[in-house]
Structure formats: C-alpha cells, structure tokens
Amino acid sequence: MLNSCTWNMIQISVLPDGNYSIVYESSGNTLDIENNDFLHPEDSATWFTTLKKDSNNDIVKKTINVEPIKGKLVFLDEESLNYIINVEKNEYFFWDEYYFSSIIYDLEIDKKYPSIVNFLDVEQDEISWILPAKKYIIKTSLSEYTEGIFIDDIFIEKVDNQITTYFDYVEKDSLIDKIDINSSLIIKDALNPMITELPKHFFDRIQPIIDFHESEFEKNTALMNDYFRFNIELPGKMQHHNGDNEEGILSWEIDFNEIATDNFEMYGKSIIIKKWRILLSIFLVLALPLYRLKAIKKIIS
Length: 301
What we know:
The protein is of the alpha+beta class and 301 residues long. The protein has 9 helices and 12 strands. The strands form 2 sheets. The protein has a 7-stranded mixed beta sheet. The longest helix is centred in the last third of the chain and has 26 residues, at 275-300.
C-alpha cells in the first residue's frame, strides 16, 4: 500500500525589495515523484521544472520560479497537500521589517478515519489502519449515495449489515488482500450475495462518489512516507520565529504525523536597521542647534 520514502524541500529566499524566489526539490522513485500527493507548481509561464537521476538512481525533480514572487501563494488541490506561503515587507524611516508565514493544512485523519489515529505509525500492521479507512470510504459513499433519493430504510439497514459482516470476516481472518484494493471493488465483493436486490445501475452511480473518497485516501497514505523541509532566508537580523535558526536560515522538518490531525504553522520576522539614516538624523539633531547658535551670533555681531 505505502510507497517508498520521498524527500521534499522548499527553499524560499526573500529579496531586499520583499519579493521572493522558491526552489522545490523532490527526490524518490518514479512512482513517488509522479503521484499527486505533493505537487510542484506547473504553470510553464511562471515555473521551470527539471528531472534527473541521482547516484542512487532516484528521480530528482526541481522546480523554480521564473520571475520574483510578491505576496501570498495559495496551493489548494483535492488530490494534493494544501498550503499557503506569505511574505510581507513593511518599510519605516529607520528600519524595514520582513515577515514570513506559512500554513500546511492538516489531512483531517482524525475526522475522516477516527479509528486509525492510534495506528498512524507506518510500521503498524496494515490491516489495523487500512480496514477502518476502507470502511469509512464505503459507508460514507453509501450515505452520500442515498442523499436526495428515496430508498427504503429496511434496505439501507440490510446493506449496512452486509458491509459490516464483510469487514468483520476480513478482520477475523486478517484477509488484507481483500481490502488492499480500490474500494469500488471491495463494495462489489461485499454486496455480491445480495446483488439481485440492489437498485438498477447501483454500482455505476456510486462509483464517482467512491472514486472521490478513494482519491483522498490515496493522497493521505502516499504522504505517510513523505518528509518535508522548509528553508527560508530573510534579509537582515532575525527577531522572532518558531523554526530552527542555522546561520540566519530558518528551517522546519515535517513528517506525516505532524500534519495528520493538525495544521502546521511556520513564521519568522527579520529587521534591517537603516544605520545611515539614524546617523544622519543624529547628526542633524546635533548640528541644527550649533547652526542656529552660529546664525544668532552672526546677527548679534
């Protein structure tokens, strides 16, 4: 079920004018790089992407922006990790302030698959977390299928009992092969004993609903073995942040457990003091009285 490990880095460099550049780098096997769990930006007019193999025969994908970016970037996609990046610059007479903030939105594992929260460790027995997840997909799809149409409550209960019996049978005999497949195949197998009682075109109509939830599940499980590192370099002296500061570069390392049930938030603030303006102001403050005194003496004399 799980893919091998994928390493992802997002390197952000903020320029003195407040604009910034981003380099995305992902490393893994071909399937890891081609899946949609973490997408690089793809607009060819704005981003440039390269692919190459490293010494370990892994694919390394790099994407960089063509022109400097200003303001907020929002990445929202049903099949991918969702996040925002925001950079701001505030200018004052004596200093400039730079702000970075980013939120990686959580996968809502606790809401979608509450039974697997205790089994988020990928080393756990697969049936411990795949079974409740597949059960969620199928029962949620059935619930959405019945919305807005009239179906006898007795029939709904019968289908629900059949699904429950099927999953009990799988769990009892640890039949992982029965559920480590697309949920649309699982429901066909589970409801096969009562296939003649199902509504006409039942499987055709429930298929798109299952496909949506299955896609969500595939994204979430693909991210189980993904690791992320965010680096950001802000101009000036660092003041406040919630990352690791390594010689002026802030960094955050993120794995699946940190975004499974909660948003992951990053921020940093730096400042550039305009020393020449301060020195000039001090000079003027000191020089102006002397100039006035000299002018007064000249008038008196």
